[in-house]
Each structure stands twice: as C-alpha cells, then as structure tokens.
Amino acid sequence: MKKITKEVYLKWYEDMLFWRKFEDKLAAVYIQQKVRGFLHLYNGQEAVLAGSLHAIDLSKDKMITAYRNHVQPIGMGVDPKRVMAELYGKGTGTSQGLGGSMHIFSKEKGFYGGHGIVGGQIPLGAGMAFADKYFKRDAVTLCYMGDGAVRQGSLHETFNLAMLWQLPVVFICENNGYAMGTSVARTAHTTDIWKLGLGYEMPCGPVDGMNPVKVAEAVDEAVERARSGGGPTFLEMKTYRYRGHSMSDAQHYRTKEEVEEYKKIDPITQVLDVIKEKKYATEEEIEAIDKKVKDLVKECEKFAEESPYPDKNVMYDVVYAQEDYPFLPHKL
Ligand SMILES: Cc1ncc(C[n+]2csc(CCOP(=O)(O)OP(=O)(O)O)c2C)c(N)n1
Ligand SMILES: [Mg+2]
C-alpha cells in the first residue's frame, strides 16, 4: 500500500473538511429552495471515501454508487463547481443541470453515478468490471451500496456471477445503521452484513468505516486482489450518517444521544487529532486549510448562483423519437 504520510493526513483533512462543508452549504441553500428535489447528504461517512481514494489508481479505476453521491465525483477529480451547479439545475452542471442530486456522472473521471434505485448499481458495477476484464483493461471498479441494498436480489445474483467470472470489483457496503428510518436490526437476522460474502466464498470482512486508515488498508488489499486476477471482495464499512436520510427526514427513529456518540469518533476529528499529535501542521497551517476550504465552498456557490439555467433547446438533444428502433445509433 502507498505509505500514509504526513501529506496524506493533510490531504485527508482538507478533502474531508471540504466535502463536509460543501454539503453543509447544500443543506443551507436547499432550505432556501435554490436546490430542489431530493437531497441525501454524506456527512459522517467521509472516511469511507477518503480511505478508498488512497487505495485506487485515479487514472484508471472506477467508482459507482447509490444516490448519496455528491462528494465521490469530487474525490475522483470532477470540478466541485460543476457538481454544485448540477444541484442548482444550472447548464454548467455535470449533466447540464438535467440530472440533479442523485445523478452526478463523469465518464471522463471514472465516476459512473449516482443511482436512485436501491441496489440498481450493484449489477452495473459488476458489468463495468466485466467489460474491463473482457477488453483486458487494467482497471478495478469500486461498487458502493447502502445497508438497505444488501437484501435486494440484485446483490445476490451479482455476487454469484462476480465470483463465477472472477471480476475485478470491490463491493463496499456503507452500513450507516439505517435504510431511511429502518435500522439494520429490524430487517435482518444477522447485523453482520459482511457475512453475506461467505455464501459465495467471496473474500469479505468488516471495516471501521470511521477511520480512513482502516478503510485504506482494507480497500488496498481488495483492489490488489482484483487487479492481480483474484476476483471480487465484499467489505462492510461500519459507518454513520449525522443528517437525516434526506432533507425531509424528521429522524424519529433514533435519539440525539446516538448521533452525538458517533460524533465522538468523527473521521475529520480523528485525522485532525493525529495531525496535532504528530505535529504534522502548526495551528496557523491548520487555520490556512480551514480558510482555503471555506473559500472554495464560497467559490462553488457563486459559480452555481451565477450560472445560467440550461437552454431550452437542450431538451431536444436528450429527448428523441427513434423511428427504426433498435437500429439507429444512439445520439446524446
Ligand atoms: C428498489 C427501491 N426500493 C425502495 C426505494 C426507496 N428508498 C430510497 S432510499 C431507501 C433506503 C436505502 O437505504 P440504504 O441502502 O441503507 O442507503 P443509505 O440511504 O443509508 O445511504 C429506500 C428504501 C428505492 N429508491 N428503490
Ligand atoms: Mg443505510
């Protein structure tokens, strides 16, 4: 695994803080009705992304996830200004403002969405890995899902084929304890989700998803296995989301105390503690990072606010009538 140096800790701190503040800003502008529709925020789960990014090769590896998907593309290299513009429904957004919150996508940066159907991305992730294996491309796919997705038939059918064909994919369940308002314990006999891999003889295990070091180590091992032809892995990241399922969630299913307990092991605080303890940065240097993050969030907001809505003619480019289906080449 690439060494976890001082620079990595500082990058983790800056990245995770930026993702957190970016989404805090989204929550604020959502209340002002500048961002509409559904909005599912990632606050609390940032270590899963930070650790994963350390373990992959951004120049060739790929990522696909569910609808909690604003910060992953940023981690993969998509311009955050364009992500915020997409959420505002503006023409400068990643999908010209036509996708919105649940549908961020960037083929160029290896980020394949953004999927609103629970469990829908699981077979797609395996399909991406199948294509890479078939065309002999050296790439690994990270396929994320929530704890609510693992009881879908799509996961089980996919696990079977992914093992049969030894696909270069890492399945990562982000177990944040709840599927909307339903706790894992209310929907399954076993709350150890990682054990689902055992039935398929897929390498699997639990991971502390609040600590980017633990995440990086586990994902690195899985990515190396996939890259060297060893097939898929299933990891269960034990994590937590601080905000509601979406912005309209009154959160009657959990206590404030429970949320506060998890904030004690907050991933950003954990990383900052190491930075301070090992003297990786002075107070002034940390303040400079905080300011940089704040300024970048402001820049994203300004860009989204000032961008124009998509031209009406765009509608004619994405809705089409096909007369001799299925033989016409698909034009987007
Ligand atoms: C097939 C399907 N069934 C139900 C829904 C409604 N739904 C949206 S999110 C969600 C909960 C999923 O929870 P989880 O997989 O744990 O992800 P999290 O929101 O915690 O990230 C449900 C049931 C849906 N979008 N798709
Ligand atoms: Mg969940």
From TrEMBL:
<dbReference type="InterPro" id="IPR017597">
    <property type="entry name" value="Pyrv_DH_E1_asu_subgrp-y"/>
</dbReference>
<dbReference type="GO" id="GO:0006086">
    <property type="term" value="P:pyruvate decarboxylation to acetyl-CoA"/>
</dbReference>
<comment type="subunit">
    <text>Heterodimer of an alpha and a beta chain.</text>
</comment>
<comment type="function">
    <text>The pyruvate dehydrogenase complex catalyzes the overall conversion of pyruvate to acetyl-CoA and CO(2).</text>
</comment>
<dbReference type="InterPro" id="IPR001017">
    <property type="entry name" value="DH_E1"/>
</dbReference>
<feature type="domain" description="Dehydrogenase E1 component">
    <location>
        <begin position="15"/>
        <end position="311"/>
    </location>
</feature>
<keyword id="KW-0560">Oxidoreductase</keyword>
<dbReference type="GO" id="GO:0004739">
    <property type="term" value="F:pyruvate dehydrogenase (acetyl-transferring) activity"/>
</dbReference>
<keyword id="KW-0786">Thiamine pyrophosphate</keyword>
<dbReference type="Pfam" id="PF00676">
    <property type="entry name" value="E1_dh"/>
</dbReference>
<protein>
    <recommendedName>
        <fullName>Pyruvate dehydrogenase E1 component subunit alpha</fullName>
        <ecNumber>1.2.4.1</ecNumber>
    </recommendedName>
</protein>
<keyword id="KW-0670">Pyruvate</keyword>
<dbReference type="InterPro" id="IPR050642">
    <property type="entry name" value="PDH_E1_Alpha_Subunit"/>
</dbReference>
<dbReference type="InterPro" id="IPR029061">
    <property type="entry name" value="THDP-binding"/>
</dbReference>
